[in-house]
Amino acid sequence: MDFGDDSRTGSARDDGDGGTLSKQLGNNGDSSSLASLMSTLLPVLIYSAVCLIIFWFFRRKVQRVYSPRSIMHSLFAEERSTPLPQGWFNWLKPFWKQGDDFVLNHSSLDAFLFLRYLKVLSLICFVGCCIVWPVLMPLHATGGNGLTELERVTIGNVSDPNTFFAHVAVAWVFFGFILFTIYRESIYYINLRNAYLLSPYYANRLSSRTVLFQCVPPAYRDAARLRKVFGDSVKHVWILRDTIDLEHLVDERTKTATRLERAEIQLIKMADRARRRGERAAPALPEHLLPPTDSPHHPAAAIPVSLSDASRPSSPSTSTTPLPAGTPSAPPSPKLSEDPEKHAGFPQTLPDVNGSVAGQWIPADKRPRHRPLGNFLRSVDTIKWTRRRLKALNPAIAKLRRKLHRGTEGRPLESVFIEFATQSDAQRAYQTLAHDKPMFMSPRFIGIRPDEIVWDSLRMNWFARMARRFAMLAAIVAAIIFWSIPSAFIGTLTNIEKLSQMVFFLEWIMLLPKVVLGVIQGLLPALALSLLMAIVPWILRGCARVAGEPSLSDIELYVQSFYFGFQVVQVFLVTTLTSAASAAFSQILKDPLSAKDLLSENLPKASNFYLSYILIQCLAVGAGNLLRLYDLLRHGIMARFVQNPRVKWRVWKRVRPVHWGGWFPVFTNMGVIAISYSCIAPVVLGFASVGMYVIYLVSKYNLLFVEDSSIDTRGLCYPRALKHLLFGLYLSEICLVGLFVLRSAFYPMIFMIIFLIFTALFHYSLSEALAPLLANLPRTLALEIEELSRTDDFPSPGLSDVGVADSSPHIFGQDGDEDEEDDGPEHVTLGNRGGSNPGLEGSASLGRTFAKVSWNAYVKAVTAQLHKIGLGPVLERIDAIIRPEYSPNPNPVMRFLHPSTFDSFAHLRELIPKDLPDPTSTYPEDYVFKTYYPPEMWEPAPKLWIPKDEGGVSAQEVEHCARYGKVEATDEGAWLQEDGKVGCEVEQAPFWEERVLY
């Protein structure tokens, strides 16, 4: 056989092209990046369009799902949003015009700052496009390295090292803008947070005036002693005790009452079915025995909660069909029919057979039964057994509560809540070193609401808390390490085409169509990584509880910090490195000396994966958040099968809360990715800018009309996210330094190292300057508020209720001013003959004064000379730019450049409405006994809610529960329909409680 004419002969020698396999491995121009991107983009666009169409259709019909904040009566009037028009398109303009400050005043500070954070990220990426694209995109496209498609506009296509000076210049400008933006937003946050927390609506709340002290020594677990430490401003002291035994009793009572309620509903439904079967089987009475035609009609039947019911904003009724005209909105409770034919031979006055009306239709052995463990799994009548158990539990709970209140039961805990008269007093106690020994009466927390306390954390002593904290830290670090295994596998999927050429059992992948291969390399890895990271926040919340975080807001801050670590390591570092390494692995094995060139070329190619990742996170996840498929199914379909009025009420009233610790890190990491690839693969900036703005619009709608932002960190997630964003700068600078080293561009490398050092110095200086202002309210604002109150009608909050002059203790005694003696005329030195600096003495002071006078004289002389040559207007313009005066409608650029002038405390204070109600007006009289004690100390006995039936079973069960079980029950507002299903009016739920703004 003659191989002389075969083009493949010698392909492996003499720089031959090689066969098919070697050509695909060696030819850098053979790229499938566009195919992978389109394989992700098209399914995401289709999915997003379907979600948007469904949302557009059901938004008008199912308001309980798509605008509960407009119709829920459980919200205060100042919390409800203005409903949007119900047309197909006329709601877009009002929504677009709705400002973010509406979220600030009707939702929370966290919600407002989250929207602002998304806009800041979108702005950074957009400005990055304006700075980077005009310079670097042409340089990359004409770099001469032979790359194609998306790789052509990456730094990997640049062959000339001198070109990297342009990257350095662009990086300095863009990164400098990012640093200034972070500084500006930090100033804005501090001023806004101070204005919000010092507004009367927030300052007067109980949580703003209450401080939690942990690690309190036994000697200070005494109310009288604590009053001596903190003064007469102490109003109430909650000294906690271990209530674990009481908690078990209360939990058992709740579970027993729930079992009793289910059994009662089951009994009523069984009796009703049997009664109706008997009615249908009984012969009809003769016509002459029937009553006149004007006999009362039966009450209108109701149908359980359904999709159409959720669309009615006026009433949260669980009925799907409207009642007949003239019928009240709450249907009357059904009574026994007066129609003799309905009774089918049964007497109208039903006897109490064996103590149960239900016994007329069902035998005793058919009643609900269960096998309790405490009864050795012997079968018992559920209703009778639970009644007896509840009758025994109630006095046991009351007795144990009395002992705990007297302090004769339960060990004392190390945590103490102290309520102060004003927010000013609480801040003073919070910022004061309370004990002379280390770790005593520390840590301290302020602003914790009673409904967000994690009581299990307060039961820990200091040693257990410290041990658990370190244990959870070690567990999280180990999880990050081991989580890298599936993340690395996902990273290799982005180059599965090249891996299939090296691994023999993956050769079948090369036979797949290009479209399928693009989906495997583009859509599948991004989707898998998103799902993999979605479960991490829930794991971290469990770790936070184990570590002893005292409140839900502190748990979210804990999750934010560690979840960002997960995101950066798994989504960015591991995926980038494995993607680049898998692309160049075979070539490095063949030629190890080419490793640095191959890595410098393949690291930028890893950016293709993040284009798909951003598409999924922003478009697909955003569309899913807008659709809210689970809520739509829960209220539209699943609610039809719920046969318990309490569950119906719970489903109706519950609005899903926002977990800020799981939201901020996802988009912070996308910002980190965009910044890191800004000079390496600038296309990422465009995708990130558009994606962030899409998420902003979706989040704005949800926070305005759908979601509950009850978890309140008082805005602390925002500065933490800004600091995390600096990590993207570090990564970008380090990546550029590494790429410059790999390409032997040493001078650009030196310039980037210089800017890296500058970034670290900026980071350190910013943290040192702003750290005290993030958690504390400064005392100087008291004077500023007092001065502002003279010029407007904004009421003064708690921080200024104590005079500024009297706000600090008299260190030198009360009568220090009176004891001062007149020492005669002061000695006047040469430095103060002008009267400007009395008391200047010494050569150092003279030197400083001389230097200041000389500098001022020099500046005046230079200014005068510039005016003489006609540069006066230019100087005035420059001075107006550097030191602008405040105006209500400033230039957006000037407002961005001067946050201290245009976004000061005095001006941001105007964002808070002045007519908000006083939150203390909602406090019950006995709030002292309910707020900062565990729920088991004050939680009332459960009240049963069962449906009313025509047979009268429910009426007797309510009476028997009160007589034999000492359990309160009611059948008002719930009823059985003719088809045997349960209907209810959620507004008439017997356990509906008014919300209180603690």
TrEMBL record:
Subcellular location: Membrane
Gene Ontology CC: plasma membrane
Domain CSC1/OSCA1-like N-terminal transmembrane: 37-185
Record keywords: Membrane, Transmembrane, Transmembrane helix, Transport
Keyword Transmembrane helix in annotation: yes
Regions of compositional bias (Low complexity) in chain numbering: 306-328
Annotated region described as Disordered, given as residue ranges: 1-25, 306-366, 810-841
Compositionally biased spans, kind Acidic residues: 815-824
Parts of the chain that traverse the membrane: 34-58, 117-136, 164-183, 470-496, 516-540, 561-589, 609-630, 683-703, 724-742, 748-766
Keyword Ion transport among UniProt keywords: no
Signal sequence bounds: none
Bias (Basic and acidic residues): 1-16
Pfam family, one: PHM7_ext
CSC1/OSCA1-like cytosolic domain: residues covered: 208-456
Residue span(s) of domain CSC1/OSCA1-like 7TM region: 468-740
Tree of life domain: Eukaryota
Entry GO MF terms: calcium-activated cation channel activity
Domain 10TM putative phosphate transporter extracellular tail residues, every copy: 896-989
UniProt membrane topology term: Multi-pass membrane protein
Cross-referenced PANTHER family: DUF221 DOMAIN PROTEIN, PROBABLE MEMBRANE PROTEIN DUF221-RELATED
Family: Belongs to the CSC1 (TC 1.A.17) family.
Designated name of the protein: Phosphate metabolism protein
Organism: Verticillium dahliae (Verticillium wilt)
